Amino acid sequence: MSVKAFPAIKKIKTFIIQGVGSGGDYHNVEGGHWLVNSKISTPMSGYEQYRKSRTSWGINVLGSFCVEIEATDGTKGFATGFGGPPACWLVQQHFSRFLIGADPRDTNHLFEQMYRASMFYGRKGLPVAVISVIDLALWDLLGKIRNEPVYKLIGGATRERLDFYCTGPEPTAAKAMGFSAAKVPLPYSPGEGTEGMRKNIEFLTKHRKDVGPDYPLRVDCYMSLNVTYTIELVSKTKHLDIDWWEECLSPDDTDGFEKICQAHPDVKFTTGEHEYSRYGFRKLIEGRNLAIIQPDVMWIGGMTELLKVSAMAAAYDIPVVPHASGPYSYHFVVSQTNSPFQEYLSNSPDGKSVLPVFGNLFSNEPIPYKGYLDVAELDKPGFGLELNPQAPLIDADTLLNPAPQKALTLNNDDGNTAKANSH
C-alpha cells in the first residue's frame, strides 16, 4: 500500500510590519514603554549618551518581519520574528532555493541546508534568527496540514497547565497578577562606577522588601556586566536571596560563567537567549556552569534546533526555560519534561498588565491568566494563531526594488555557456 503524497512547499512570502508594537521584535514599541525607556543596564551603558533609552543605540532598528509558507494543497503556515527588511531579503534571495518544492516534513534537512549554506556569513545573529522564523512557519504549516497542534507533533503534553513567571519593571504587579515569580532588569552597569553599584543594591533591596521574603525575585543583567562586577554585586546582595542572576556576561564569555560559578557555587546563574544553534549551546551545557539555559525559539534556529538543544540539556539535567516568544515557546515547554515553566515578557507600556506578546498581529493569541495557561487552549492546528485581518503587514516584494542582479553566466571548459544556479 503506497503512502499518500504529502503537500510540497509551493510559495514563500515575507512581510514587514508597519508602525510599532506588533510582531516578533519585542523592542519595537512606542516611546515611553518600560522595555525601551526605563533605566536598564545594557552593553552600551558604558557610554553616557546611550543610557537613557535602549532605542538610542538601536535595539529596535531591525523591526518585525513575517514568513508565510504555502503548500501545494493551499494550506499556509505563518510565523513572526525580528529582522525587518534584511530578513525578507535573506529569505527571498538565499533561503527560498532550499524550500520551494521541498517536503515541509523534512525540517531537519531543511534547517541543515539553510544553516550550512549561510555559514560563511552567519552561524549566529540575524541569519540564524531568519532561519528560525522560516522553521516556525514550517511547523505551523505541518500542524495545519495534519490538523494537530505543534506540541502534539513534537512529543505531546507533559502537563495539563503551563505556569509562568513575569519579566517586567514592577514585581509587586507580577505577584498581584498571580505569576509564580518576578524578574526585574538591573538598572546600572559597571561603567556607572561605585554609585551605580550602590544604586543597584538599593534597587534590589527595595523590590525584595516590596514582594516579601518568600516570593522568587530574579535579575536580568542583559549581557552588561563583567566577571569582577558580577562577583561583587552577588556578594553584596546575598542577603536578598535573589533566585537567579540572568545573562550577567557577554554571550561569548563562556569561561567567565565558570569563574562566577566558582566564586558563588550556591547561586543560580542563567543565560542563553542570545546564543544560537546547538553548536553555540554545546559549551554552555557541557561546562555545567548554568542552573538553567534560556534559548529563544525565534532566534536559536527555530523549533527544530531548540529540540536538539533541549535533548542535550536534558542529558545534563539542566532545565530549559525559553526566553519569551509567546505561543511558540508555549508549545515547546508543555512537550518537554525538563522545561518546568515559561517566561511571560510583559508587553504593556507600564508592565503592570497582561497583553498579547505579539501585539495586534494575531486575533486570538493565548495569554496567561492568574499566572498560568491551560494546555487545552493550545489545541488548535499548528501554533493556533489566526492572523488579524487588520494587521499592518507590508508585502516585502515592494521592498526588493530594484530587483537583484541575475546570476552570472559561467564558461564551461568546452566553451559553452552555463548559467549559475540562482533558483
Automatic annotation (TrEMBL):
**Residues making up the signal peptide according to the UniProt record:** none
Q: Which UniProt keywords apply?
A: Magnesium, Metal-binding
Gene3D superfamilies attached to this UniProt entry:
Enolase-like C-terminal domain, Enolase-like, N-terminal domain
Keyword Aminoacyl-tRNA synthetase tagged: no
Which GO BP terms sit in this record?
A: carbohydrate catabolic process
Q: Does the keyword tRNA processing apply?
A: no
Q: Name one GO molecular function term.
A: magnesium ion binding
Q: Which cofactor does it need?
A: Mg(2+)
Give the highest taxon in the source lineage.
Answer: Eukaryota
Which segments constitute the Mandelate racemase/muconate lactonizing enzyme C-terminal domain? 169-267
Pfam families tied to this protein: MR_MLE_C, MR_MLE_N
Q: What is this protein called?
A: Mandelate racemase/muconate lactonizing enzyme C-terminal domain-containing protein
